[in-house]
Amino acid sequence: MKKLSVKIWMLLLLFITITIVFLMIFTNFLYEELYVEDTETSMIEIAENLRGTYKGGAVTNYFIKQTEDFNRFSDVEVFTVRNPKELSACIPFDIDYESLIGPEERAQLIEGEAVIKRGYEKRFNREVVSVIYPLVDENRLEGIIYVYVPLTKITEMASKDVIFLLITVSLLLLLMAWISLKTVQKVLVPLDKLKVAANEMAVGKYDTRVDVKSTDEIGELAKTFNQMATSIQEEDEKKRDFLSIVSHELRTPISYIKGYGEAFEQHLVPEDKKKEVYTLIVQEANRMQKLTNDLLTLARSEQHQEVHISPLVLSEIVWEVLQLVKTLADKKQISFTVTIDEDTIIKANEQMTKQILINILENAIHYSPVSSSIKIGNELAKNDTTIHIQDEGCGIAPEHLTRITERFYRVNKARSRIDGGTGLGLSIASQLIEMQKGKLIFTSEVEKGTTVYITLPIWEE
Amino acid sequence: MKKLFILLLLCFIGGCSEASFPAIPSDTDFVASLNTLDGSIDFISNEAKIMESWELEEAYTGFALATDDLLLVYGYTVEKAELIELSTGKQVASIDVGEGSTYAYVYEEKIYITNAIDNTVSLYNTKGEKIQTQATGNYPMAMISDGNNLFVVNFKDEFLSKLSMELEQVDEWAIPTSSHGLFIKDNELWLGGHGAGSSPNRSIKRMNINTGELIGEIKVPLMPINMARANNGHVFTVSHGSSSVYEISETGEVLNSIKAGANPFWISSFGDSMVLAGYDDHQLYFIQSGEITKKLQVGKGPFQLIVREIE
């Protein structure tokens, strides 16, 4: 397979060659034309000057001698003819003689017009340019002045210059070839760079970037390529982070369980501590279970499965969820203030909506101080309703606010273990809301509290 | 009425084959010029006015009077020669001469036509019936007769054919090629021509009409090719190479010359004038006593003249 650059270059070269060759032929033609024309002009001048000395009547010997004398010093051939046979005077008769001029030329000459012609002339047995001037007295063609130059002589003269032209053109052609090659290379180098970069990407080197500075289409392509590479790299990093976090999160409870297990095996646990250690083992196992459940939920939600949507009475859902989180809230003596509109019917999946609310509320409870209150209400809009859940917790700093739905993202990494969360709750909530064509917005003020806005479509009959 | 209509229709469909020309009254004198370049015949009265013009449909290159009222036209490329009655303008007979007709000569209602493709001369009667044919030299053309013999010039050959009036071979006389223009003066046969090869002929040859012996030459440069006897007995010759007309005495001396016409090929005596046809300038020149008395524009390329004078 030939390289694109070679193909384009060959094409360019072909075009250039065709153009130059055509131009050369054309120039040569024009040049010869001009040369011949120039010769014709001087021949006409000669013929006119000679004719100027014709005084009418029969063409005299003196006149013929004068032409002969002129011919001796001229670089064109000149002669005067007065023989009627040569002048086709016997036209109606089928004379056995090849005259110098034909019947049409004779007619033209009788009218006083000059005959200028190019071509093969039998009389001279060669290609000539000839100018014939009539010597007319009244209506009588008394004679002609015949001036001619062999065409070869003219083309010979022109061909000297043609060699020069040929050399110039060849040099020009070489120069053009070189310039076009360089240009094509310059244009196509970025493409080559892109190819190399794409290859590197293919083998997993996601930090590869293309260095193309042009602003043309190829430059645009390179820019897009770089953007794509950045995205892939980011995704890759997220994946790595996710995996390392997951393994880390799983490793911690496993190492606890393993530690306690070994302690049991070697009878290092005193009898009175055993109950406490069992509780710890169960707690760590629960944490692992919760984590794997969350991961499963997340993985499912990312598969974009078909969601079963049905009309749901919002207040019922909220009350059911509050029952579920009641034990957790009671531990911290947290009270709920609910102002949910009883008539709001949302268009959502029941399980998903419950999961969303549980995750948000658990989060709110976690970060709320003891004996605080969490307000739950909703506002109706034309097509949807926005549920807001407001706590009086520690709040989230603005730099974290945009990232809290990322998987395993924690505002305070040190506290994670103690909090008992998996770091996937908000991520799952966000994913599920998106699947139901809803919106999730956080507003927060540090030390004052956070408000979560969940917008879901309402059921319309 | 209906029959007439059908007749007219048939005439249109078939294309009237019988060409009809404007009639020339049989009691008028005229000189007629055959203009070969535009294919027409102009009939000119003795007042030097064009009486009638005929537009010809074929490329006729020559014509002759078969009788006072019967005009013969022929052409080198035309297969049929036509006999046209002048007083009615109607074609009365057609002669199947084939291509190659170069010249026609009439002697006492005997029509002789040369053919330069077959290289023959044929004798026809005024009804257009062929009577006799005789082979000649290469390219027979100019003809003349003294009543006893027919002299045929072979244009591209080096001899003249002397035939009987019934076209029997009599003799052959050496002449130059490209000879043209015959005239009989007493016992002499005068012969003009263009000249062989590249050199133009400058003279008329005088030959003994019985023996063909060269008696002398009359210098009338260049290219004398036609001669005519004037009322005063003098002979006028036209030399087309120099566009000159020479007046020659009865003894064969050049009396005077005049430049007239552009490349004239024919001269005829008509009334008191000599009429000259200028081929290149398309004019007829009326000459009296060595002076041009009138010029008349005719059709293009007047090549030949015929004269009819009712006595």
TrEMBL record, chain A:
Main location: membrane
TM segment ranges: 6-31, 162-181
Swiss-Prot/TrEMBL catalytic activity: ATP + protein L-histidine = ADP + protein N-phospho-L-histidine
HAMP domain residues: 185-237
EC number, UniProt record: 2.7.13.3
GO molecular function terms listed in the Swiss-Prot or TrEMBL record: ATP binding; phosphorelay sensor kinase activity
Family matches, as Pfam families: HAMP, HATPase_c, HisKA
Subcellular location, record wording: Cell membrane
Entry keyword set: ATP-binding, Cell membrane, Kinase, Membrane, Nucleotide-binding, Phosphoprotein, Transferase, Transmembrane, Transmembrane helix, Two-component regulatory system
Gene Ontology cellular component list: plasma membrane
Domain Histidine kinase: 245-460
Secretion signal span: none
InterPro entries named in the record: HAMP_dom (IPR003660), HATPase_C_sf (IPR036890), HATPase_dom (IPR003594), His_kinase_dom (IPR005467), HisK_dim/P_dom (IPR003661), HisK_dim/P_sf (IPR036097), HssS/ArlS-like (IPR050398), Sig_transdc_His_kin-like_C (IPR004358)
SMART domains attached to this UniProt entry: HAMP (SM00304), HATPase_c (SM00387), HisKA (SM00388)
Membrane association type: Multi-pass membrane protein
Superkingdom in the source lineage: Bacteria
Keyword Plastid (UniProt): no
Protein name: histidine kinase
UniProt source species: Psychrobacillus psychrotolerans
Lineage: Bacteria, Bacillati, Bacillota, Bacilli, Bacillales
Automatic annotation (TrEMBL), chain B:
Keywords, ordered alphabetically: Signal
Signal peptide, first to last residue: 1-19
Record keyword Signal present: yes
InterPro entries: Haem_d1_sf (IPR011048), Host-pathogen_enzymatic-act (IPR051200), WD40/YVTN_repeat-like_dom_sf (IPR015943)
PROSITE patterns in the cross-refs: PROKAR_LIPOPROTEIN
Protein name: 40-residue YVTN family beta-propeller repeat-containing protein
Protein source organism: Psychrobacillus psychrotolerans
